[in-house]
Write a structure and sequence with these properties.
Elements (H helix, E strand, L loop, with lengths): L1 H10 L9 H8 L3 H8 L5 E7 L1 E3 L5 E16 L4 E6 L6 E2 L4 E5 L2 H30 L4 H26 L2 E3 L4 E6 L8 E2 L4 E17 L12 E5 L6 E12 L6 E8 L11 E6 L7 E5 L4 E3 L2 E8 L2 E6 L1 E6 L2 E6 L6 E3 L10 E10 L5
Helix pairs in contact: 4-5
Amino acid sequence: MLIAVVLLAGCGRPGGGRPGGAQEDARSGATGEEAMWAREDRTDRAIEAVEISAGRFIDYVQSSGRIAGSREATVVSESQGVLQRVEFDLGMSVTQGDLLAAFDERVERLALEQARAAAESARVELDAVQRSVDAGAASRNDLARVEAAAAGADAEYQRATKRLEDRRITAPIGGRVARKDSRVSEGNYLPAGVNVAHIVDTARLQIQLAVGEREIGYVSPGARAEITMETCEPQVGSVSSVAAGSDPQTGSFAVIVTWDNRCGDRVRSGMSAEVRIEPNVEHEALIVPTAALLRRQGETVVFVIENDTASRRQVVVGRRVGNRAEVVDGLVEGELVAVSALSTLADGQPVEATLKGRSGELR
């Protein structure tokens, strides 16, 4: 009889028989996970933590791209016909003005001689009419007519000169031949508009990088850059230009880095490279690892470790780059914050923290 009375008394207590029960949870204002922890065994939870410290917010801006010559030119045929001479091949070094290929130019040369004779004749006639006008023997209308004829003859002479020049394909810059059209061969017919060759000046190289909006503020023209390639030792260059606007498709900003080629033929246009750019000089900032940040009820919070207890605290962060964020408010240097088991931590929970280092020094 005594046993039955005790059981009934326990079932009638609010909270399922535990002293305080749900009412005690309501008075404490605990969240669901904290109430769950409050009902569990209060053993210390093993976590990892870092000590909040100041440091350089960013050590370098890193990106990758493909190497190109600082000067590159695609040679396009501006005439058509059968190639009589081809004076270049893939990989060959050329200097500006070197002959690459030539068409038969006999017809164009004859046309040039005719145009030159016509232009000279027109100038002689113009001089004669000018003297007649000065002597009153010819009218101004006569002068205007021969002036127009002389101008037309001179224009035709310039066109004939250009047609003859177009029969010879020359190198617009010095460098090495990176590409050659398969149709470029002696005896082959070559139409106009063919990309005959692509020439790369490898004495000085460049690489275009795509930098995100979070990092672009740290990049400025003249900044030192280190270029790493698989085929050569790291090279040192500098930022030559930074885009004023982003790419509408990717949202990234173009940054061009240039350097003198000290690797010779080991580096060629089209190879890939990694680039690290030294950021603008900046003051140290208080750093918190992004692994320590949580979003709770629209707020950014961390778990601060005090007296072996996890205490939830709201913080305000600013810039974020990679796994680091700048502390604006809510933390001071020297405090410990949890960086593991965040999803299972509760405010006021006992913890056993293992220190992983100082936040300003972690990478």
